[in-house]
Design brief:
This protein is mostly helical. 64% of the residues lie in helices and 10% in strands. It has a two-stranded antiparallel sheet. The relative contact order is 0.11.
């Protein structure tokens, strides 16, 4: 349980016009046993986590695309490798963007980054689900879908916390 301090102004008809009364009130909005994720959920930590994930994906797509493709039940070909290597460059760039923006305060630019990445993660999750439904991928793709949805929700929570 947490206690929250709030101020209450007396109305103008009282003898103590302008005086503020400080009241301690029990705040039940916090969980009794908060998880570390609830406590540490902020843009900086999420940007660092996402940046590391993007750098990891860039390295995998560049040097060992078979790791992801075999998990998803997709055969490797030269064409798939070409697209994967080009995607690696995008993941590396997004990772750099996250590390450069990790200390940014709430702003229009940070909101744009969050909006763009939420759209990208949700689009990737939808595409992964579509590929599973059309039997172009195996259920192994659901691990990627879950991570993409979780990150999109986490970024939405961070954006909502500041608005």
């Amino acid at each position: 349980m947490h206690f929250r301090r709030w101020s209450k102004s007396f109305d103008s008809g009282t003898f103590a016009h302008g005086l503020k009364e400080h009241v301690w009130q029990l705040d039940y909005s916090y969980p009794l046993n908060p998880s570390p994720l609830d406590i540490q959920m902020n843009f900086k930590n999420l940007a660092i986590l996402s940046g590391l994930l993007c750098f990891s994906l860039a390295a995998i797509w560049l040097f060992a695309p078979n790791i992801l493709l075999s998990t998803w039940g997709v055969d490797f070909s030269y064409s798939v490798g070409l697209v994967g290597r080009r995607g690696a460059a995008l993941y590396a760039g997004i990772g750099v963007m996250f590390f450069c923006a990790k200390n940014s305060e709430h702003s229009l630019a940070r909101s744009a980054i969050i909006s763009g990445i939420v759209v990208a993660f949700l689009a990737l999750a939808a595409l992964g689900t579509f590929e599973l439904a059309t039997v172009h991928a195996t259920p192994g793709i659901l691990s990627a879908v879950l991570v993409e949805v979780a990150l999109a929700v986490a970024f939405l929570r961070v954006a909502r916390a500041r608005s």
